[in-house]
Design brief:
Length: about 425
Amino acid sequence: MSRLDEIADVGAMELFPFVGPEHRFYSHIARLRTEVSRQPLWRETMHRTSPTAVRTLMRARRLPRGEWGLKWVSVSFQSRDAWTSRFDALTLFYSAKTQRVEAYEFPHDPCLRTAASFFGDAASGPLMRGSDLDVDVCRYIPRQRLTFLVRRRSDGGVPVVGKFVRNAELERAYEVLGEVHHAVARTRPLFAVAAPRGIDRNAEVFFQEARSAEPLIVRLETDRSSDVFRSVGAIHRDVHTLDVRHVPTWSVRDFLESLEAHVQWIAFFFPAHASFLEDVRGLLIKDVPRIDPDGHAFCHGDFRCSHVLQDDGSSVVIDFDGAMRADPYLEVANLITLLKHDVPAFVQRFADAAQDPTDLLKAACDAYLEGYQERARQTLDPKRLLWYRIGCEIRYLARTIARDLLDPIRFDRLIRLLHDLSAQYRRDGARSS
C-alpha cells in the first residue's frame, strides 16, 4: 500500500501526505505540519463549506544521483468575504536552511515589498491612491505575483487591473503586454487583449485595461461544450499567428533538460515508478522530432481555457507574462494536458473514482483540435503532438507534487494515462517505421 493510499484509508488530511517517515524530506515536512496544525485556519479548511482555500508550494534544488535538497515550503490560507469582497491571507513560510517557520499576513509579502504600502495607503501609483479607491484582490500567489482590480469612485468606478510582480519580471511583462496589444490591433484576430495602462517601476506594479468579462470555463459545465472548445482551438491558432518578436526563444534542449528533472522529481517521491518513468523519458529522447527554429511561432506561454474570457459575446485572452517564441505543438499539447486540471467539470470527474471522464476529455480534445486545424487550414502531425503530450503530462504530474495537489485517484489515473500514451507512441512508431 502506498503512502497516499494509507492517508486515504484513515481519512486524514495533512500536508504532502506522500512524504512518509522514510523520506529525505520527512523531518522538514513534519516540522511544518506541526506548525500548520496549530493554526485554526487549517482546522477550518477540513470542512467542505469552508471559505478558506489553501495554496501550497514546495521548492527544492537538484543534487547528484537524482536526489533533491529542500529549499522552502509555503502554505497560504486565503479567504474572501462574499459581502464586502475583503481578502485575507496568512502565509507560513518554512526555510529548510533555518528550519524555522515565518508567518506574514497579506499584504506584507517579503518578495512583493511595495504591495503593503499600496494597500496601506502609504504610497502612490499611476492612479494616486486615495480614500476614494476600491481595491479587490483577484489572485495572490505568495512571493510571486498579485493581481487586483482597482476602481476610483470619483471617476464613476471604471476599473483597472493592477499586477504586482517581482522586480526582475516587471519590465518584461509590461513590454510584452504592449507588444501583444499592438499586434492584435494590427491583425484583428478572433480575440482581444487588455490595453496597457501604465507602469510604476518604483512601486513594482503595472496597470492594464479591465474587461467586463467572465471566464470561459463557466460555460464548460456539461458535455454540450464542443462549440466552445472548437472556438478555443481557433483562438489559440490566432495567438500563434501574432507578430511579436521581443520575447524569449524556447529550446527543445531546455525541454529535455526539464523533462529529466521532472522524472527525477516524481521518482524521488514515488520510487516504485522510477524505472517506468525513465523508460518513457528514454523513449522521448530516442525520437526527438525534427524541430526547425524557423517554424517557431509566438506562444502565450500558458494558454489554457481559464485564460480565455467572454466579454459581451467576444473573447479576451489574458496573462501573457510567460510569452515566448516556441514550437506551437508544445502549447497545443499543453492545453490538452491541462483540460483535466483547469476546467472545473473535468477536475471533479478526474478526482472521482465513481466517474470515468475519458470520453468527455477525448470529445473536448477532438473539438479543440478541430477548431485549431480548421483555423490553420492544415492538419497537425499526430505523432509529433503525442511526443509533446507525454512530456507535458510528466511535467504537470511533477507540478502537482510540488503544489500538494495529488491524491490517490488522480495519481493512479495520471500514471495509467502515461502508460497508455507511451504505449500508443510505441505503436505509432512501429507503424511509421
